[in-house]
Amino acid sequence: MATITGPALPDMPWQERPADCSDAVWRHTGNPIIRRDALPDSNSIFNSAVVPFGAGYAGVFRCDDRARRCALHTGFSRDGVQWELSPEPIEFTGVLSFEYGYDPRVCRIDGEYIVTWCNGYADYPTIGIAETADFKTFRQLENAFLPFNRNGVLFPRRIGGKYLMLSRPSDNNHTGFGDIFLSRSPDLTFWGEHRLVMKTGGGWQRTKIGAGPTPIETSEGWLLFYHGVLTSCNGMTYSFGAALLDPEEPWKVIARDRHYLMSPQTLYECVGDTPNVVFPCAALADAPTGRIAIYYGCADTCTGLAFTTLDNVLEHLKKQK
Ligand code: BMA
Question: Which stretches of 122-173 are assigned E, i.e. beta strand?
């Protein structure tokens, strides 16, 4: 039997698959769980990251304000569904001045929480990194890469003594290309040994792809949810699927979705500031049951929650061979 390697999260958000649904991933019936105006000055709250913290959950949220500035805010929750977001953006300490930040991921590694996000530097996007122990103070480290880069996602443990990060080299615009690469670092500061992980595929992932939540360790390899983009006469459509990466050399792909797991199909995923976007940035996993809850941005406007299990994802991956 395939298993998740990790903690038990018996109280994590969960809903059974509806009787009339045969999809591998299904949506929370209360979606969107975070509305665009959950803060007095927010235009939109989406593409955000949560982790187990204390007796509940904490997170770093992408909140664009009504001047359409992108900032990162903390949030706390008892149940992972109802969130209290801080009205003030995170103030990072460190040597770099903060220009803008979006699409955060949070990864617990060696007992600390590391935030990675798309960080403005010299007005260009690259990968910012900060560490926190309490979600109150955040120490910003050096940017991982030169511009342009997006979707920096850390692995939750070191491999061969090194930190591993997935990322997607890009350009300064609505990048019309993009593959997933992996880089290694002894100290979270100096990154190298870059390896190609996956290039774009066909169909829903034909324009570009990018890593989503922190990879989940399983008996079958690292489970990576990733977004894929298709460009049509109507613009870009963001869906997501899954891949399995080699346990020790995760730049080697064991299996990969040809069919998406989720595409934008509900009103809140299809209508918003950027129509037709589902964009996963975080996942919670309960090792004993194999349950997985995925947090994803909807139409660059609000935040949704979806569910699956390890068995459902593996079956989905197998069905397409
Ligand atoms: C990407 C990022 C994401 C966004 C997506 C769709 O380039 O800006 O934040 O969700 O485009 O607009």
Answer: 124-132, 138-140, 149-154, 163-169
